[in-house]
Specification:
The complex is a heterodimer. By secondary structure, chain A is α/β, with parallel strands linked by helices. Chain A has a single domain, classed as Rossmann fold (3-Layer(aba) Sandwich), CATH 3.40.50. Chain A has a five-stranded parallel sheet with strand order 1-2-3-7-6, sandwiched between helices. Chain A has a two-stranded antiparallel ribbon with strand order 4-5. In chain A, helix 2 packs parallel to helix 8. The termini of chain A are far apart. By secondary structure, chain B is of the alpha/beta class. Chain B folds into two domains: about 160 residues, Rossmann fold; about 120 residues, 3-Layer(aba) Sandwich (Rossmann fold). Helices cover about 40% and strands about 20% of the residues of chain B. The longest helix of chain B is centred in the N-terminal third of the chain and has 14 residues. The chains are: A alpha/beta, B alpha/beta. The interface between A and B is medium-sized, with 32 and 31 residues. The complex binds thiamine diphosphate (TPP) and magnesium ion. Magnesium ion (MG) binds next to strand 4 of chain A.
Chain lengths: ~280, ~300
C-alpha cells in the first residue's frame, strides 16, 4: 500500500465512523436512543489510521478500548448493524443488550468490552498481553491515563517488554475539565520515565504511518492530540469552533474524496434507516 | 502419611503451574518464606509471576491474564490488602461472563491471620467480595476441603475467592459436622472459628449442653441444607461464627437462615471496631471460652 492508498483507506474508514456517529447524534436527539452515548466524532482518524496500518502489517491486534469506542469498533471491522441494534437497546445487539455505548465488544474483531471504570483496560490489556504475547492496543483517554493503576501497568508492561501499543486519545478533556487544571506533565514524558519509547503527535494519519515501524515490537506509547466534536456524553456541541480534521482533509482533497464522502454517508444512512425500520 | 493444608496447597500450586501450565501471580512470592510454605520454589519461567507492588494494577493484570486463557492463581498475602487488590476483579472479572459471555476464571488465595498485627493485616475480609454477583466464596480449613474447592474451580469458569487462614496450614484433620436429634444450640462456623467452635461444642456436650455443629465451607453460593433448618428449629438458639466483621457475611447468612426457619440465629463475627496491636486492644475471632460463655449467657446457665 503506498501513501495515497493508505490515506484513502484511512479516509474511507473515518467517513464510516463519522456518518455512523452523526446518525447516533440524530437518534439521541429524537430520544430513540435512551441511554448515555459517548460519541467519537472528531477523533476517528486515530482508529482509522491504526486499523489501516494493522491491515497492512497483517496484524489482527487484541483491542482494549474505553467508553468512547464506536470508532474503534467500526474501524477495526465490527458489525455495524449489530452496533446499531445495541445502541437501540436490543438483545441481539453486539453485546446482547448489556453493553450500551460504553461497554460494547466484539469477539470477531478481538475487541474486549470496557467495564465503565476508566483506565481498567490498562492493567487488563497488559495482563492479557503478558499471557498471549499477541499484538495488543490499549486505548486510553488523556484522563484515564492518569489513573494510578494505568501508570503502574505501563511500568510493568515496559519491564516485561510486551508488544503493546498504548494509544492516548488526548482530547484535552476529562468531561469538561482541561488537562492544564489536572496536571503539569505529559504522558509521553511519563512513558519515557518508564523506559518506553513514546511519541507526541496530532491525529493526522501520516503521523501514525511515520512511526508505525516499531509497533508491536516493543511497548510504545503514543499520545495523540485530537478533538472531541460533541459533548462528553449525549448529543450536543460544546463549541462550534472545535477543530475538525475530517472536514479539513475532505476540503483539501475535495476532488478525490468528495465521492467517497457522499457514498459512505449514503451507505451509513441507509444502514441506520433499515435497522430502525426493523424495530 | 496425611498431608497438612500447607502441603496440599503447595502441591496444588505445583501441579497447576508445572503440569497444567497455568500461572500464579502475586507480590514477593519467591521470598519471605514462600507464603507460609504454601508455594513451591518456582520462578517466572515456571509460571510463578512476581507482580510489581502496584496492588490495584496487579489485580487488573490478573484479570487480563484470565481473559487470555490462563487460569491464574492470585496470591494475596493478607486479606486486608484486598481493599486495593479486588476492585478490578470484582468489577470486571466477576461481570465478564454475564456482560460479554467471556469467562474470566481466577482462583484468589486470600490469606488471613491475626493476633498482634493491627487493623489492616489482621482477620478475614471475604465479606468484601460477597456482595458482587459472579463470585464464589469458599473458606477451606482442611486438606480435603481445599482439594474439593480447587477441583470445582477447575471445572468451573467463575471467579473463586478462597478465604484461607494461616492458622489452618498445619492442620491434617477433617472437621466433621455434629448433627444430633435434640440440640440445645446450633453452631454454624466459618474459617478459623471452626477450630474453636468445635472445641467448645465438645466441651459443652460434656456439660450436658447439646450442640450441633455445621461447617460452612461455601459462603457463596450459600446452599442451605434442610438438616440445618431442622437443627435451627430444634435448638433454643443458634450462632454463626466468623473471622470477618459481624456486619458482613455473618449477618447476611444469619438472616438467610432465619428467613427459612422459626428461630433466632445470632451472627458473631469480629467486633465493630479497629484492631490495635496490643493484646487488650486486639479484635480477635471468638475462642472456645468466649463461645461457651456466650452460649451459657443465652441459655441463662
Ligand atoms: C474510575 C472512574 N472514575 C471516574 C469516572 C467518571 N468519568 C467517566 S468518563 C470520565 C472522563 C474520561 O476522560 P478521558 O479518559 O480523557 O476520555 P474521554 O471521555 O475524553 O474520551 C470520567 C471522569 C469513571 N467512569 N471511572
Ligand atoms: Mg479526554
Amino acid at each position: 500500500m503506498n501513501k495515497n492508498q493508505y490515506l484513502k483507506k484511512t479516509f474511507e474508514l473515518a467517513a464510516e465512523c463519522r456518518y455512523f456517529e452523526l446518525n447516533v447524534f440524530k437518534n439521541v436527539e429524537k430520544k430513540i436512543i435512551k441511554f448515555p452515548v459517548y460519541l467519537s466524532a472528531g477523533q476517528e482518524f486515530i482508529s482509522a489510521s491504526l486499523s489501516t496500518i494493522c491491515k497492512q502489517k497483517k496484524v489482527v491486534p487484541e483491542l482494549f478500548p474505553q467508553h468512547r469506542c464506536h470508532s474503534i469498533y467500526i474501524s477495526f471491522g465490527g458489525d455495524k448493524k449489530k452496533l446499531v441494534n445495541e445502541l437501540l437497546g436490543k438483545n441481539d445487539g453486539c453485546t446482547y443488550g448489556m453493553g450500551g455505548s460504553a461497554s460494547i465488544h466484539s469477539k470477531e474483531i478481538k475487541m474486549f468490552g470496557h467495564d465503565g471504570l476508566m483506565g481498567t483496560q490498562g492493567p487488563i490489556g497488559v495482563g492479557s498481553c503478558f499471557v498471549s504475547k499477541k499484538p495488543t492496543i490499549i486505548f486510553l483517554g488523556d484522563a484515564s491515563a492518569e489513573e494510578d493503576y494505568v501508570l503502574a501497568s505501563l511500568g510493568w508492561a515496559s519491564f516485561k517488554k510486551l508488544p503493546i501499543l498504548f494509544i492516548v486519545e488526548d482530547n484535552n478533556l476529562s468531561i469538561l475539565t482541561e488537562k492544564k487544571t489536572r496536571r503539569h506533565w505529559e504522558m509521553h514524558d511519563v512513558a519515557k520515565g518508564f523506559k518506553m519509547k513514546s511519541y507526541n503527535i496530532d491525529d493526522n494519519p501520516l503521523n501514525f504511518l511515520k512511526i508505525s515501524d516499531r509497533f508491536f515490537k516493543e511497548p510504545i506509547l503514543v499520545n495523540v492530540n485530537t478533538n472531541r466534536l460533541f459533548w462528553h456524553a449525549g448529543a450536543g456541541i460544546d463549541s462550534p469552533k472545535t477543530f475538525d480534521r475530517y472536514k479539513l482533509i475532505l476540503k483539501k482533497n475535495e476532488k478525490s474524496y468528495k465521492k467517497i464522502d457522499d457514498q459512505k454517508k449514503r451507505m451509513i444512512d441507509i444502514l441506520w434507516k433499515k435497522q430502525l425500520e426493523k424495530q | 502419611m496425611e498431608k497438612t493444608v500447607r502441603e496440599t496447597i503447595k502441591e496444588i500450586v505445583f501441579k497447576h503451574l508445572k503440569k497444567k501450565k497455568y500461572k500464579a501471580y502475586g507480590q514477593c512470592l519467591s521470598a519471605v518464606g514462600w507464603v507460609g510454605g504454601t508455594l513451591p520454589e518456582l520462578y517466572e519461567k515456571d509460571g510463578m509471576v512476581e507482580l510489581s507492588m502496584a496492588d490495584v494494577a496487579g489485580g487488573g493484570i490478573v484479570v487480563g491474564a484470565a481473559l487470555a486463557g490462563d487460569r491464574p492463581i492470585y496470591v494475596i498475602r493478607y486479606q486486608g490488602f484486598n481493599w486495593f487488590n479486588c476492585p478490578i476483579i470484582l468489577n470486571y472479572a466477576c461481570k465478564s461472563k454475564e456482560i460479554w459471555k467471556i469467562p474470566c476464571p481466577i482462583f484468589i488465595r486470600g490469606i488471613a491471620m491475626e493476633g498482634g498485627i493491627g487493623p489492616v493485616a489482621g482477620s478475614s475480609h471475604h465479606s468484601l467480595y460477597h456482595r458482587m454477583p459472579g463470585v464464589k466464596i469458599a473458606s477451606p480449613m482442611t486438606p480435603k476441603e481445599y482439594k474439593k474447592v480447587y477441583q470445582q474451580f477447575m471445572k468451573d469458569d467463575s471467579v473463586y475467592y478462597v478465604s484461607e487462614h494461616r492458622g489452618s496450614y498445619g492442620n491434617k484433620e477433617e472437621i466433621k459436622d455434629i448433627n444430633k436429634k435434640n440440640p440445645d444450640v446450633t453452631f454454624f462456623s466459618i474459617s478459623i472459628t471452626r477450630f474453636e467452635a468445635i472445641k467448645a461444642a465438645k466441651i459443652l456436650r460434656k456439660e450436658k449442653i447439646n450442640v450441633n455443629f455445621h461447617n460452612i465451607l461455601w459462603l457463596k453460593p450459600f446452599n442451605i441444607k434442610q438438616s440445618w433448618i431442622k437443627s435451627v428449629n430444634n435448638s433454643k438458639i443458634s450462632f454463626i461464627f466468623d473471622d470477618d466483621y459481624r456486619d458482613g457475611i455473618a449477618s447476611t447468612l444469619a438472616h438467610k437462615l432465619m428467613s427459612k426457619s422459626q428461630k433466632k440465629v445470632i451472627p458473631y463475627g469480629l467486633k465493630d471496631k479497629s484492631a490495635g496491636f496490643s493484646k487488650d486492644r486486639d479484635n480477635l475471632p471468638p475462642s472456645a471460652a468466649d463461645i461457651m460463655r456466650l452460649v451459657k449467657k443465652f441459655l441463662k446457665k
